[in-house]
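2.7 Reproducibility. Because tokenized structures are sensitive to small changes in the input, we list the exact sequence used for Dihydroorotase, including any N-terminal residues retained from the expression construct. No trimming or masking was applied before prediction.
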Amino acid sequence: MRLLIANGYLIDPSQGVKAGRNLLIEDGRVAGILNYSDDVPEGAEVFDAAGLIVAPGFIDLHVHLREPGQEYKETIATGAAAAVAGGWTSVCAMPNTDPVNDNAAVTRFIIEQAERAQLANVFPIGAITKGSRGEELAEMGEMREAGVVAVSDDGRPVPSAGMMRRAMEYARGFDLPVVDHCEDRSLAADGVMHEGVWSLRLGLRGIPALAEELDAWRDCALAELTGARVHLAHVSTRGAIEAVRRAKERGLSVTCEVTPHHFTLTDEAVEGYDTNTKMNPPLRSRDHVQAILDALSDGTIDAIATDHAPHHADEKALEFDRAPFGITGLETAIGLAFDRLVHRGIIGLDRLVELCSTNPARIFKLEGRGTLRPGAWGDVTILDPNLRWTFDARRSRSKSRNTPFDGWTFQGAAVATIVAGRVLYTHPSLEDRRRAIA
Ligand SMILES: NC(=O)N[C@@H](CC(=O)O)C(=O)O
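Resulting structure tokens (single pass, no recycling of outputs):
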């Protein structure tokens, strides 16, 4: 099986490639980077990428696929379909399923379901503590053997510093990164949105920025104490970013991700009490969003991750106070990244690829991903920076529709998604770009 992605502009920060080149994939792996003038290899199918950017496959470090246990919200297959439709060749699945992925049997089940779906690669993340209850460490070694790439109690913080210290020491022994959902629950209490002027005006209980920042500082200090690899999930505040910036200056193994909704929206979006603006961490005030944009541009933020969190329409149709936290994000992330970051001059195209592919692969040590080096997996995301398109949530591949971005128009999109040399998604604008060569 041979696929030649021809006439595109290759951007691969892992090897400093930024040039018009052809990419050859053979039997699922990158076979080489060729010049436009080189002969088309015999028997290759040609994908014409003229005018498009060809990048190593995008990797989302943070999704909730809900299977096992909440298949009415999403399954591994529907989540992986939404992933490829959004330009993601790989997704990393958080363990807050039912049962929680805190043992090898659940890990293996997730991997088997993903293999059956034959869509995006799914890398499971195991729980830090049993049942993510924060009381007793989970069997990280067994889960690692079964295929987890990181550990996290995401959805919940690890409440005590002592437990987090032991978790980091334990995870370090297995070379697993610890991904923390930073939220001091004694401060967040039963808040439902960011604490500030808007929570006051809307009469909703607030979650102070400090709830995230305290845990972020704690985790950075513990990273120094334990030498563990620490990754902060969905950072949303100026203080959390400052903690990461300081940790990096000190040479610690600390990384962080940001979600598209946190770099796009402010807490003002909650004004209409739309429960699709309710997520954890909450949408923050303008000053925090500015800190995120600065950190995206100066390199403090390592990755863009969606925190795709599907919920059923009936659950989101409750009062703001009672609706669950979370929004879907796989199919709108790249549109938002182009529109809000690239076209506004906050990041360049190579930085976009770094944030969505090179760095995620490095942070979770995903072998043969995030690069187009010969021998790497033939996972490719093709981008059209200028395509204008409108997101219609009714046509989403996800089982859920809980997004604040329904009906939004974007400039820029992921227009084709290729996993191990198989073209799994092409935008309708590209349908005539593929031809077989005898
Ligand atoms: N991010 C969210 O708003 N929701 C997540 C869990 C969580 O992190 O609260 C979910 O699983 O629904």
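The two ends are 13 Å apart (CA to CA).
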